[in-house]
Amino acid sequence: MELMKRTAVINVVGLTESLLGPTTPHINRFVSKGARANIVPPFPAVTCTSQSTYLTGLPPSQHGIVANGWYNHEQAEVQFWKQSNHLVHGRKIWEELRELEPGFTCAKLFWWYNMYSTADYSITPRPMYPADGRKVFDIYSWPFSIRPDIKKDLGEFPFPTFWGPGAGVQTPQGAPDACSRWIAESAKWIETKYSPTLSLVYLPHLDYNLQRLGPKHPGITEDLRRIDSIVGDLIQFFEQRSVRVILLSEYGITPVDTPIHINRILRENNWLAVKEELGLELLDAGASRAFAVADHQAVHIYLNDPSIENKVRAVIEKVPGVADVLDRKQQEARRINHPRSGDLIAVSHENAWFTYYYWFDDNKAPDFARCVDIHRKPGYDPVELFLDPKIPAVKLKIALKLLKKKLGFRMLMDVIPLDATLVKGSHGCRPSNPADYPIFITSQPELLANGQMNPTDVYHQIKRHVLH
Question: What confidence tens digit (pLDDT) does each residue in 283-315 have?
């Protein structure tokens, strides 16, 4: 075990070279003492794909995480943000390092696919869903004993600040950076209690306003100050305990102004099927000839009728904002050819992104469309970061709904708008400027070969930091 160097990998979501400056003095100081490289973004550059690529050293064509969610052919359902690590194929970095040294241990803190992994210690967001229809915010941990012990010391995880309209803004539940601060404190707690050889720490604070406001908005400077303070404190903590530190990110977020409602286009051509339930419309993926699973700037298009592939492609290629459409053969070059992938994958221009919207009339939108509901929606929805500006006294409405929930009544937290133009930042395609690529910063400059690396190289870089 003496041969292994204890290492912490801090994933600062959305951090790029273009964001470093006067508002990031702690990160700048860390760069000046070490070395920095840009990571060529994986495709698509989204959370689950990026993290799985980093932790397996494999492309999506091999590890199988082609997006944050995809269509399950056998169940005829779109499934998003699943949490079982069994979905990620290939050997994980902690498994290889454990083979090299049986005493090796790994802590995986809020990185995705954290449930039922072979990591020694883990914490991940996981609500509870009692039979009465409530949703109770909580976390899942391994070992189970971590959950009650860490909540006793740190308090409840501030779940409303992890995603939704309360993420990245001041709320009664906490400061704008409350969830990232809790996660950082959990990393200290785990380090103090268990001293793992490798700690994987996820800090999401930048992700919220970079999507909500866009990276050019002046308000981002405050977000940079906040994350820099958290990161600086965590670096100091780990270095005082002789733990090497790597800072990295999963993707860079670029300004957007063009939402693409690709499912509406498929519906206009009579390829997408919708069923009406309780007066509202639900996408019927299994009955559709073609439908799209949207995820930021990439969208998987699934064809239950292969005969229409050329027609679908011809239509999508003409849509303003679409940069490319990849068939199965072309997906091989992007290393995303996998049974979970769409028959076609459309990629947007840097200033555009894809919505999951399929209804024409907002009065027919499903009830979950106006809620934070990451699992039921057949696609990623960044509009969940907003409160509907059309609702009078919306915060009072939320307070009344929460009171109703506390009294044991069922309620629908339908406060999310249906206006995709509110979103000002996105990711998924490869930015034109390398300064907007994800970043890799190390405290060990001698271990970094050059100023740019492929996403699969991150695995090997982490391995080198532990072994050399």
Answer: 999 999 999 999 999 999 999 999 999 999 999
DSSP state of 219: T
Mode of pairing for the β-strands spanning 298-303 and 290-295: antiparallel
Model confidence pTM above 0.90: yes
Tens digits of residue pLDDT in 60-75: 999 999 999 999 999 9
Task: Say yes or no: 278 and 412 in one domain.
Answer: yes
Pair (268, 379) in one structural domain = yes
The residue length of the chain stands at 468
Distance CA 11, CA 419 (A): 30
Asked if the structure places residue 1 within a domain, the reply is no
Token pair of 34 as six digits = 């070490």
Check if the beta carbon of residue 283 is closer than 8 Å to that of residue 263: yes
Instruction: Specify the pLDDT at position 1.
Output: 46
Is residue 145 domain-shared with residue 219, that is, in the same domain? yes
Q: Which residues contact 468 (CB under 8 A, 6 or more apart)?
A: 5, 447
Highest mean pLDDT among 131-140, 146-155, 166-175: 146-155
Tell me: do 320 and 404 sit in the same domain. Answer: yes
Q: At CA 402, angle to CA 399 and CA 403, rounded to 5?
A: 85
Q: Write the CA distances from 334 to 48, 60, 101, 247, 377, integer angstroms.
A: 17, 9, 35, 26, 27
Residue 449 has pLDDT above 80, yes or no: no
- The single-letter code of the amino acid at 401 is K
- Domain assignment of residue 388, given as a range: 258-423
30 and 441 Cβ atoms separated by less than 8 Å: yes
Together in a domain, 93 and 226: yes
CB 43 within 8 A of CB 60: yes
Pure H helices in 260-384:
262-268, 309-317, 328-333
In total, how many domains does the chain have? 2
Structure tokens at 349: 């221009």
